[in-house]
Amino acid sequence: MSVWNPDNIKDVAESIGIASLNDDVLQGLSSDIEYRLSQVLEEALKFTRHSKRTTLTTQDISQALKVLDVEPLYGYESTRPLRFGEASIGPGQPLFYVEDEEVDFEKLINAPLPKVPREISFSEGVQPSIPQNPASADSRTQELVPKGPGANPNLAALSGADNVTVKPLVKHVLSKELQLYFSNVCSAIFDEANDEYRVAALASIRTDPGLHQLVPYFVQFIAEKVTHGLKDLFLLTQTMQLTSALLDNKSLYVDPYIASVIPPVLTCLVGRHLGSSPDRLAHFELRNISAALLGSICKKYAKSSHTLKPRLARTCLKHFLDPTKPL
Q1: What are the respective helix, strand and coil percentages of the chain, to the nearest 5?
Q2: How far is CA 202 from the centre of its chain?
């Protein structure tokens, strides 16, 4: 017998258009919900204990959902403890809600207004340097940043804005050693004159267990190289070798970044024009490497993402059946 009330499941089902559910289905769903909730709470309590706290917070729940590869909740994080009120909607059916903060309009109206800046215009054609005005360099930078919630800096680069500067939303501090390692490895991988450096750099990425903080930087670096280097066959090939070495490292957890790794690989597999070599067959080696890498990704990460194989199959099939495509 599940602790979770099956009537709640029935109410949710009716709200999305499912009129009737079998009692066995309701019982199975309630048991599954109870298991999922206990799993989330167990993970959240781990964060509470490791933080040396005794109070479970909404941030612990969000972190637990991320660990379990579940989309986190939005709008439930607060620096202040939430006050819950209770309302009765029937016998034995209490309803809990978050109490809104009461605002005294009289105090709000009578509160002093903020100070008006003394300089609010340009002086002899020069913007005054005051906190209320952005710096000129910052304003020029903001003009170059792609606008909109779905803005993609790589797409902006393809349109000709190579000097786009994107400020990260989260400050991520890397040690000087990791910064130096990242710079040296990236330069060695694309050193066309030194095979030994390239082999050593790829071997280091494939086996080094201390590269967890560099994984998002490598993923972004791969996307940028493919976006900007479609005419350079050597650069694309080395980028695919870098991707393969990163995925072969057993010490790294790359599952959350697979969705960002696949587009560059697909580009090198089915791209219309790859490289500028006079040899028309030179690009097929790159396509073979990309195809093998895509197959390896499907085998390795299909369990963590059940929609990975169907999505890739649809993408490849749609491309291969299109007579206007190059392949």
Answers
A1: 55, 5, 40
A2: 25
User: In a structure prediction context, what are the per-residue pLDDT tens digits for the chain, which is 327 residues long?
Assistant: 567 778 888 888 888 888 788 888 888 888 888 888 889 999 999 999 999 999 888 888 888 888 888 876 666 556 666 677 788 777 767 777 777 778 888 888 888 887 765 554 554 555 556 555 555 555 544 544 445 544 555 545 544 555 555 555 555 567 888 889 999 998 998 888 888 888 999 999 999 888 888 888 999 999 998 888 888 888 888 999 999 999 998 888 888 888 888 888 888 888 877 877 777 777 888 888 888 998 888 888 888 777 888 888 888 888 778 777 766
| Strands (DSSP E) found in the chain | 84-88, 94-98
Burial label for 48, CB within 10 Å (0-12, 13-18, 19+), is middle
**Cα Dmax for the chain:** 81
CA distance 224 to 164: 12
- Contact predicate 99/84, CB 8 Å: yes
Long-range contacts of 32-40 (CB under 8 A, 24+ apart): 33/2, 33/4, 33/9, 34/2, 34/3, 34/4, 37/4, 39/68, 40/64, 40/65, 40/68, 40/70
Nearest to 307 by CA among 249, 244, 262: 262
Q: How far apart are CA 121 and CA 233, in angstroms?
A: 53
Strand partners, 209: none
Measured between alpha carbons, how far is 117 from 119 in angstroms, rounded to an integer? 6
Give the C-alpha separation, 128 to 263, whole Å. Answer: 45
Distances (CA, A) of 109 to 105, 106, 117, 154, 199: 6, 5, 21, 48, 70
**How far is the C-alpha of 117 from the C-alpha of 129, rounded, in Å?**
12
| Contact predicate 55/25, CB 8 Å | no
Place of tokens 């993408």: 315
